[in-house]
Design brief:
With 148 residues, the protein is mainly alpha-helical. It is built from seven helices and no strands.
Length: 148
């Protein structure tokens, strides 16, 4: 897998911009990066506990994708297994972190951790299983190793 430089967040406001922009569907499409996915989800976990992310994150991301001209199909857009794998990883990371710290510091630390890597899900799923239509549509159990 190609290594990409990690883009860090410089302030809590920058993280809030991503999280609130996702919710409001006002985030410019070019800002919806891997880092933004993790920042938005971390922000939602910490700042919007009233949102049941286990059931609502699919709709939040799918509606956002459509609002910026994207589609949610069998080959692009929302991916349920990857989304829920990272949600689980973010919750694990936060359970071991000092959540009193600034949100952007937490997000930056997450991005540098194993759970923040673009290839983290491939520790648990084969590429074929993870990239399957079934895994995109619904949660699919890992086939290589159990998730923490």
């Amino acid at each position: 897998m190609t290594e990409f430089p990690v883009r860090h967040f410089l302030s809590d406001e920058a993280v809030a911009h991503i999280g609130e922009g996702l919710l409001a569907r006002t985030l410019p499409r070019e800002e919806w990066t891997h880092e933004a996915h993790l920042a938005a989800t971390t922000y939602l976990v910490l700042k919007h506990p009233e949102i049941d992310l286990d059931t609502e994150l699919r709709g939040i991301i799918s509606r956002y994708n459509e609002s910026v001209g994207g589609v949610n199909s069998d080959s692009e857009g929302y991916h349920d297994t990857i989304t829920h794998a990272y949600l689980r990883g973010i919750r694990l990371f936060l359970s071991e972190a000092d959540v009193a710290r600034p949100v952007h510091d937490l997000v930056n630390e997450l991005l540098m951790s194993p759970m923040g890597r673009r290839d983290w899900p491939l520790r648990f799923w084969s590429k074929e299983r993870l990239m399957s239509v079934e895994a995109r549509r619904n949660w699919v159990e890992p086939d290589l190793a159990a998730m923490p």
